[in-house]
Design a protein that fits this description.
This protein is of the alpha/beta class. 38% of the residues lie in helices and 15% in strands. It has one domain: 3-Layer(aba) Sandwich (Rossmann fold). Helix 3 packs across helix 8, helix 5 runs parallel beside helix 6 and helix 9 packs across helix 11.
Length: 341
């Protein structure tokens, strides 16, 4: 349980022994592109701590963003992270960015893109072309999304990495475009690439469980039409992103589904949250037989199971709200089924 954001950040920034061992094998400095978003600051701190623990305090971690949040930038500097102010969509060739042996690509556009689809394509598919050229000599771990898959039969299980993509809507199509552009960088430019298809990281300030807990607390009905979902502790997702740099390859990228092992029932999770919050859950709709689900067996085989299981995440989320700790105000919209975000 956590009593403050500081305690949460401390847990997210604590590397496992396996990550420390892999950090000792990374080449050169690290550049995190789009580090001002939801995952970037905790990923930067984790990388810094892992490198220090591996005896590589001289290796720099460059967190690149426009950094409109000065407090977040200042906090990272205090933690030993090199804060780089740069507008990745500024139209330059990124030549002014620091050199690196490893790059984590976190930039992306999702919400509001149904009204401005060109923005999704510019950030999600055009920007990776510039990144691939700039960092062709580095290992690149690029975050993608499970949205590149179609909705699948819940009884069948989640989509695996070798399944055919079937993106629904322009956001998901632009994310598949991002993957294809990084594939081009690997095949044509020789960049070593790992593509991480992430499904719903949980950090307590945001995520599917925060969405459900907020609805229950506020007395709003929970739509269970999308009745099942995958979630994963953000600390695990951050570790996998860094460790996957050692698996990046060319001319064919390394592709990995990144999520938890459970197929979580939305109804059951909301009911459990309601019990912990002392509220009565309200539901709308009926469970569909399909959902956006991923099979992350390959990830768990390589990096182990997430260290925080679903039941613990549910308990942590309820305690977070009970203590009045802050939420990011960024809903996942996990229940959207037509791809319009």
């Amino acid at each position: 349980m956590f009593g403050s954001e500081k305690e949460l950040e401390e847990r997210l920034a604590t590397p496992s022994a396996a990550l420390v061992a892999d950090a000792a094998r990374l080449d050169g400095d690290l550049v995190l592109l789009g580090a001002g978003g939801k995952m970037g600051p905790s990923l930067a701190r984790l990388a810094r701590r892992a490198l220090d623990a591996a005896g590589r305090s001289g290796t720099r971690v460059h967190a690149v963003s426009r950094w409109s949040d000065e407090a977040a930038a200042r906090a990272l500097r205090e933690d030993g992270v090199d804060v780089v102010r740069h507008d990745l969509m500024g139209g330059d060739d990124l030549a002014g960015l620091p050199d690196a042996g490893g790059v984590v690509f976190l930039a992306g556009a999702k919400f509001g893109t149904s009204a401005e689809p060109y923005r999704a394509w510019a950030v999600n598919a055009a920007l990776p072309a510039a990144v691939g050229r700039r960092y062709r000599d580095a290992a690149i771990a690029a975050f993608s999304t499970g949205n590149v898959y179609p909705l699948v039969d819940v009884a069948r299980g989640g989509s695996a990495e070798d399944d055919e993509p079937g993106p629904v809507g322009e956001y998901a199509m632009s994310c598949l475009g991002r993957e294809r552009v990084f594939e081009h960088a690997a095949a044509v430019l020789g960049a070593r690439v790992a593509i991480l298809r992430l499904s719903y990281a949980v950090d307590l300030r945001y995520g599917v469980l925060a969405d459900l807990a907020s609805a229950v607390r506020d007395g709003r009905p929970v739509d269970v039409t999308t009745g099942h979902v995958n979630v994963v502790w953000q600390g695990y997702a951050n570790e996998v992103a860094l460790r996957s740099l050692l698996h990046a390859r060319a001319p064919e990228p390394f592709v990995l589904n990144l999520t938890g092992p459970e197929t979580a029932s939305v109804r059951r999770a909301a009911t459990r949250l309601a019990a912990l919050l002392g509220a009565g859950p309200r539901f709308a709709g009926e469970e569909s037989g399909t959902a956006l689900l991923s099979d992350a067996s390959r990830c768990h085989g390589l990096f182990g199971y997430p260290d925080v299981p679903l039941d613990t995440l549910v308990a942590w989320q309820a305690a977070w709200l009970t203590r009045g700790l802050p939420l990011a105000g960024k809903p996942t919209k996990f229940s959207v089924r037509d791809g319009r975000f």
